[in-house]
Write a structure and sequence with these properties.
With 349 residues, the protein is mainly beta. It is built from 5 helices and 20 strands.
Length: 349
C-alpha cells in the first residue's frame, strides 16, 4: 500500500474557492484546452479562451491559473491562466503607484460627481473638477476607453485612487503652446477662429494652438472697415502674422494684407501730368495733404509750391481748393505726389 504523505492528505481536503490561485501540471493538451493535475480529487481544465500562448505549452509543464468556477459542466475545476497573468501584471503596476504618477486605466462607468474604473485592486475615481472641459461636455464617450491620468490622492488601506485627467491635458496644452511659440513667425499665414470682439478689434484663436492673436481694426480693411462689421463670431478665416512678441506672448494679426487693395483701382484712373482741383484736408509746415476725391489724396511738398515759401501754413488754409498737377504715382504704397499749378503756367511769355 502506498504510504500517504502530508501533502497528499492536504490535497484530499483541498477547497476550490472562486478567485483562488492554484498551480498544477499539464497532463493533456487537446483542441479545447489543457487538462491540469492540481493534486486533489479533481483535475482542472483551462479552456483555450483562458490560455496565453497555448502553442508554447507541452505536456508535463507547470501552469498557474485562477479558479473561475469550482466545477464546470464536465466536472473540472475551471481555471484561467489569462486572469492570473493579468493579476500579476496589475500587482506590478500597483506596487509602483504614488501621488504624482501618471497611470492608465479603463473607464467603467460615469458616477455621481465624475468617472470611475479600476487598476489592479484599486478603485479609481476622477472627479468632474479634474476632467477637462472638452471631455466633460461629452463624458459618456469616455466609458470603456483607456485614459491617462495623474494620481492626486491615495488611500492605501481602502485601495482608492483619486486622479486628474485635466492635469494631463493641461500638460499637453503647455507643451503644444511652447512648440507653437518656438515655431510661429512673422508673415506666416494661419487659420483662426473669431472668438471675441472688442472696441479696437477682435481676438482670434489660432488653429490647433489654443493661443489668441489680436486683429486691430486698422488691419481689417483698406477703407476703414471694423472687425465687428466684417467677421462672424466662431467662424474661421485666414490671417497673416504681422508681429510676434514671444516674451509677452502676444501676436498681432493682419487681414487686409491678404486682400486686394481696392484703392489701387482708384489710382489707376490717374496719370502723371494730370491737372486737377483738390481740397486741402491737412496743412503741415512742409506740405499739404490734398483730397482729390473720396478715399484718394495726394501730397504736395513745400518744394513743389511757391518759390521762397518757408512754411506752408503761411500761405494755405484747411478746406481751401487749389489747382494741382500729378508728378508721380506710387501704386505699391498708394501715394500720389503733387505740384502746385498756377494760372501763369498757361500763359505764353
Amino acid at each position: 500500500m502506498e504510504k500517504l504523505t502530508q501533502e497528499m492528505i492536504d490535497a484530499t481536503f483541498a477547497t476550490y474557492t472562486k478567485g483562488k490561485t492554484i498551480e498544477g501540471k499539464i497532463i493533456r493538451i487537446d483542441d479545447k484546452g489543457v487538462l491540469v493535475n492540481i493534486g486533489g480529487k479533481r483535475d482542472a481544465f483551462i479552456y483555450n479562451e483562458d490560455l496565453e500562448r497555448k502553442e508554447n505549452l507541452r505536456q508535463g509543464d507547470n501552469i498557474t491559473g485562477i479558479i473561475i468556477e469550482s466545477k464546470d459542466e464536465n466536472g473540472y475545476v475551471k481555471l484561467s491562466n489569462l486572469d492570473y497573468i493579468a493579476q500579476v501584471e496589475s500587482k506590478k503596476v500597483a506596487s509602483s503607484l504614488d501621488i504624482g504618477k501618471k497611470i492608465k486605466f479603463k473607464v467603467q462607468q460615469v458616477v455621481k460627481g465624475g468617472i470611475a474604473g479600476k487598476i489592479a485592486d484599486y478603485n479609481v475615481f476622477v472627479p468632474l473638477s479634474q476632467i477637462d472641459f472638452a471631455h466633460k461636455k461629452n463624458i459618456n464617450l469616455l466609458i470603456n476607453t483607456m485614459i491617462e491620468v495623474y494620481i492626486i490622492q491615495m488611500d492605501l488601506r481602502a485601495k482608492k485612487l483619486v486622479c486628474s485627467l485635466k492635469k494631463v491635458y493641461d500638460e499637453i496644452k503647455e507643451i503644444n503652446e511652447n512648440n507653437f511659440w518656438s515655431e510661429i513667425s512673422e508673415n506666416q499665414i494661419i487659420k483662426g477662429k473669431v472668438k471675441r470682439f472688442a472696441e479696437f478689434g477682435v481676438f482670434v484663436e489660432i488653429e490647433n494652438s489654443g493661443v489668441d492673436g489680436l486683429l486691430h481694426n486698422s488691419n481689417v480693411g483698406y477703407l476703414g472697415e471694423e472687425a465687428k462689421n466684417t467677421f462672424n463670431k466662431d467662424e474661421e478665416y485666414n490671417f497673416i502674422i504681422l508681429s510676434v512678441d514671444r516674451e509677452n506672448r502676444k501676436i498681432e494679426l493682419g487681414y487686409k494684407q491678404l486682400q486686394d487693395d481696392p484703392r489701387i483701382e482708384l489710382l489707376k484712373k490717374y496719370n502723371v501730368g494730370d491737372e486737377l482741383t483738390g481740397k486741402i484736408i491737412k496743412v503741415l509746415p512742409f506740405g499739404l495733404v490734398v483730397e482729390l476725391e473720396k478715399r484718394v489724396s495726394g501730397f504736395l511738398h513745400i518744394s513743389q509750391a511757391e518759390y521762397g515759401l518757408n512754411d506752408m501754413r503761411d500761405a494755405y488754409k484747411l478746406g481751401e481748393e487749389i489747382e494741382c498737377k500729378i508728378i508721380d504715382i506710387d501704386l505699391d504704397n498708394f501715394k500720389i505726389s503733387l505740384s502746385r499749378l498756377f494760372k501763369y503756367d498757361y500763359e505764353v511769355l
